[in-house]
Known about the structure:
The chain is α/β, with parallel strands linked by helices.
Amino acid sequence: MRNIAKKLAALMLVAVTLFSLAGCGGTTDALSRVKKAGKLVVGTSADYAPYEFHKMIDGKDTIIGFDIEIAKEIAKDLGVTLEIQDMGFDGLLQALNAGKVDFVISGMTPTDERKKAVDFSKVYYVAKQGVIIRTESKDAIKTIADLKGLSVGAQLTSIQEGIVKDQMPDAKLVSLGKIPDLILELKNKKVDALVVELPVANGYVANNPDLMISDIAVGEDDGGSAIAVQKGNTTLVDAMNKTLDRLMADGSIDKFVSEANVANEAQ
């Protein structure tokens, strides 16, 4: 659900993919490689509660969230341990195609541009979009028209960037790499609104009484979240889809989402 990098970035990803494939002799039988290593390395950008975020647990900084719970279940089904690599969202697919991680799970939408560079699992979660504003602006910002000439924030290379550009053409787009930085810009009146997914928006609003979700309705330019892997990793994708099928069928993903929201609100 975070998506739509610029065309140049997409082309760069394709180039990295080709280089990676040439350098490692292809990506065939990645599943066997992972099982042999006994470890599955996931890349994520842990600034996107309730998908993935940091929380102090027993005095230790821990990455949690419903994406992380899904990753744990995949590792468990494969009989391997899970290692988490936290990095900027805009560098995740480059890290994947450079072989630094085995897969990426980070609320990522499988767009056509991204599919040129990587393969994806089936979609495991779909969320709507929302617009966060300061509570003091509730009477001034009620429609997209009210955003004319104002600054609207979105995460760099995300689907929300595209929403601002396409649906709020009279607003000034402000793109930053981290959601917490955008929230801080909003609280400090450096931007006037933020476009984020509703599960994410709800978490931040619950923890910041000076913020609220506006009445602004945005079009749903979202294809859901899926897991990214290097191209050609069919066996690994199949194994992940098998786990996702189980988690969706027994209601586990909905449970993970609920638990992650509670954990985030308790911070």
